[in-house]
Each structure stands twice: as structure tokens, then as C-alpha cells.
Write a structure and sequence with these properties.
The complex is a heterodimer of chains A (357) and B (275). Helix content of chain A is 24%, strand content 38%. Chain A is of the alpha+beta class. In chain A, a hairpin with a 2-residue loop joins β12 and β13. Classes of the chains: A alpha+beta (357), B mainly alpha (275). Chains A and B meet through β6 and α2 of A and α8 and α9 of B.
Chain lengths: 357, 275
Amino acid sequence: MVQVVFEKVSKAYGDTVAIPGLDLVIESGEFVSLLGPSGCGKSTTLRMLAGLEQPTSGSIRIGDRDVVDLAPAARDIAMVFQSYALYPHMTVAENICYPLKKRGLAKADRAIKLAEVAALLQLEPLLARKPGQLSGGQQQRVALGRALVREPSVFLLDEPLSNLDASLRAHMRAELIGLHRRLGKTMVYVTHDQLEAMTMSSRIAVMRAGELQQFAPPDEIYNRPANVFVAGFIGTPAMALADGSLADGGGHLVVHVGPLAVALPYAAAARPDAVTVGIRPEDVLVGEGPWQAQVRLVEPTGYETIVALDAGGLALTARVPGSNALRVGETVAFDLRRERIHLFDKSDGRRWEPAGR
Amino acid sequence: MKKRPAWLASLITWPIVLLIAFPLLWMLITSVKPAAELFSTSPTLLPKAITFEHYARVLQDTPFLQYFANSMILATSTTVVVISISVLGAYSLVRFAYPGRETLASLVLFTYLLPSVVLISPLYLMLVSIGLANTLASLVIAYTSFALPYALWLLRSFMAGIPQDLESAAMVDGASRMGAFIDVVLPQALPGIISTALFTFILAWNEYLYALVLVNSDEARPLTTGVMTMLISAFNIEWSLLMAASVLMSVPLIIIFAGFQRHLTSGFGAGGVKG
């Protein structure tokens, strides 16, 4: 079993601390995405795992080996780069065989492995070509092939899809999921695209400024974001976030946000006073309800319409099914899915849930 | 855009080509004219008779071949030394982080600001003190001293264009850093290396001043100074022999240029090394 463990790993460039101290355990066979905005340290984390950057302190283990002092070549990993990093002077076949050659595999064995990978990725017609003669999607597949051919214990992928156009990206996403299922190998995937992370990962590590914000399966990241940052970062359109306060409304909890006083289906037990209230667009129900809001913006996308609302100073976003006849300036009634309102303690930004929920 | 007729382009370019090439043409013509025709009062453009006696004399009666061998050894060793050092140096300047890296790079170029005349005496004294005066090695050192900075800068810009991901990929794929350098960086930098090598070779082949000052024995004299000293004396210039020697001197460069022209143009045109 090949577990990947980061233990108190830090990385500083001179006085700039990129990663203050990372603890992360990736289980064998998992597909883990490192997700975050640019500069959050996700690529640095991956490059430290690959051995392309040296951590300032801490230990990184792959399986039962501490790899911090090992050269990239000795780590039993393969990596796919955002730029693909195909060797331009080698043919596709030579590119794919390069890792095998470096490991001293005999020519006949290399040919067998090459044939396997080429069949898996449908690269047979391209083997004699140079990377410069391939399309972006083909280059991407060659880069994958070069990583697969070695059968490493861990795959590292650094934004491998970000240079592809949208339709190809969706296609490659599906291929990667299938590949992971077939190989059952540990994969660590760096991306800033939450759609990629949500669709492919078994768990997502959301990072910000070098710190791990939340490490959980996609549905938990979406439905129970651990803090305000994760809440705002995950989800398109983004969750509406506003300052509010909690009060006791005769036994049950009442959240005051903007002009709204929303009774929540929880007992008013111990609670923080000041909170940040998060409401996802799909939890705003436009049409009927106790509250009124003015339509500020209507964005039809075809199968649904995104509506920006102003409820007496509180900015909300709603998803309305289909193409909707709502017009800017119009006043509409709305309700909220109360049990799905997210609450974060204002003092530390962390998710707060009533006991016994 | 309307296409210009081809004859118009030819009309403009050919006279220019002829103008520039005329001295070379004259050199070639003079080298095959019989001595009698050379000083005729009505000069002929095309020789009435063609003779190769001057070539035979240059090759048989003068130390030309010795000088030629010297020049070959000199230019080749200078190129090998300069390329070996500058390829590694340029890679270091591009890839490794160490204090003073940029300053070092600028200082290297700074050596170019000094006229060679200023450097020649101290260099001579230094070479004498290490016992290398009057040897081919002294010229290799001297040429390296001024070819290296340029080579370093030329190669640095080439290496800077090679994506770092390529080396990272090679290292993850199982290569050591040196292995990645040899497998990936060198092939990518090859057009640049060829251009730089050609530049260095030509520089060493044509150099005159240092060769004149640092070397004064036939055993170590290169072609440039050798041909001048053997054929030009205070009283007489052996024009036909000089021209024949000049033609022979140009041949290696022409061959090298013809052979590497493709690399040379692709070298100077290589802005986009695609990753």
C-alpha cells in the first residue's frame, strides 16, 4: 500500500513563507486534488512531493520511505506537467520510452510496454511523430503515456488539462477518471478549476496561502465547507456571504442577516453571537415566500437562469430553472431552504453547527 | 500587396552582390593569373591563361601547410574550450540560484569594454611567466579570454528559452541532473551551440593582432600572421602567392559555412523553443 504523508512540511523562499506547515495524509489508491487560487502553494506542494523542490523542514513519506533526501528519479513517481514537457527532439515513441530507458529496461521490454500504453491511449498512429506535429489533446495523451508507462506508485498531475479547450477538457476529465479506476493508483492532482476537482477527486485538499483549509470528499466540501474561504471559493455562482447574528427566538435559533430574520430548525443552545451567513444560489427559492427582493441582474444560461437579488441591502444570488421571464427592477417574493443555511463563527471564520445536528 | 516582378529584384540585388563579392573574385582571379599577366599595363578581368603554379609554390615552397595546421589546431581547440566552458557556464547562469549571479553575468560582459590593445601587454607578460609564450596554447588562452564572454551571453539567451519543465520531467523520468542536461538541454540548445561554435571558430581563424604579438616562431604561427610575414617584405609583395594563400585560407570557412548554414539560420532564428 502506498500512502503519501506530509508531516509538518514547510517551504520558505528567503523570507517569504510559501507553506508554513502542511500535514496531509493521502491514502493508497486515492485521487486527491490540491485546489486553490494561484499562489496558494498547491504546485509547490506537488513539486516537493516530486522532489523538484526541497522542503525547508518537515518530512514527506511515500509508502514507508521518507523521500525528502531522495532525488526525483528515486521516488517511484511519475508527473504530468501543465506544459506537457514533451521532449521536442524525440518522437512520441521515444518520449514514452524515455523513463524506461533511464531505468535500464531492455529494448524488447520497452517495445512491449510502449505497445500497451499506446493501445490504452490510442496513440498508435502517432508514435513516429515529433511532439511539434501533434495537437494539444494528442500532446496531453503522450504526456500521460509517458507517466503511465513506468507504472509508478504515485502519479502527480500539475494542471494537466488547463491548456486544452473546453470540450477536450471535459473529454480528458472523463478519460482520467476512467484511467484512475482502471489503474487504482494514488493520484495527486493540482488544479485551480473546482469543476475538475469536484468531478474527479475522491478527496479535495483546499489550500490558501500555503495552508490547508479543508481536506474532505467533494460533497462534504460543497455541503459543509469548513470555513468562509472554502464556502466562497467552491461553487459557481459563488455562495452569498453576509454578516449576521444569532439570537434566541423563543427556544429556536434565529439568524438575523440584512433585513431578514430567519428562524432555523435548531434549538437555541450555546452559540456565537456574530456570524457570517452563507446562502448557496440553489437554496434561494424565487416565486413565493415571506420576503421580497428586487431583481438586479438576470443571466440566462439556457437550462437555468442566474438571478442577482437585492433583499433590502442583502445581496443574494438565485438559480431559477429554465429561461425565466424575470426582468431587472422587478420585485419578487422568495424563500430560503433554512436547514441549508451555512453559519460561520465571525471570530475565526470557521463553520459553526448547532450541537446535535 | 502587389507582387514585385522578379527581374526588378534581381536588377537591384545582383549589382550589390557583385560589388561586395568583387574583391573576393579579384582574389580568385589574381591567384590563377600567370605572373607576367599580373602587372600588365592593361589589366584583364578574365585571365588569358589559367595557371595553378602559385598554388603549387605556396604549398611546396613555403611553410603554408605548417601555418594551416597551426590555424586548424588553434581554431578547433579554442572552439572546444570555449564551447565546453560556456555551455556549462550559461546553464549555471540560467538555472542555478546563487548570490551574485546577475552581477557575474554583467561582469563577464564588462571584459568586452576593454580594447584588446590594453589587454595584450599584461596577457603577454602573464603567458611568459607561466612559460607558455610563443606556443599555440598561449593563443588558445588569449582567444578564449575574449571569445568566452560573448559565447556565454549568446548561449545564456538560448538556454533561457528552454522550458525548465523539460528538465524537471527528465529528472522525474529517472535522469540525474547531468543526465537531464545531456538528454534534454543539450539537444535543445544545439542550434545555439552550433552558432556559437561557428562564431568562435571564425574568430580564432581570422584573429591577427594577438597572433602577431604573442607568437613569433614558425612552429606556432597561424595563417593570418604567417602568410603576411612570409610573403610581404619591405621590398616586395608576392601578390600571386598572397592571393593563392588567401584563397586556400578561405576554403575551410566556406566548407564549414556551407555545412552548417541550415543550423546557423535556425540558430539565430530560434526564439520559440516549444515545450
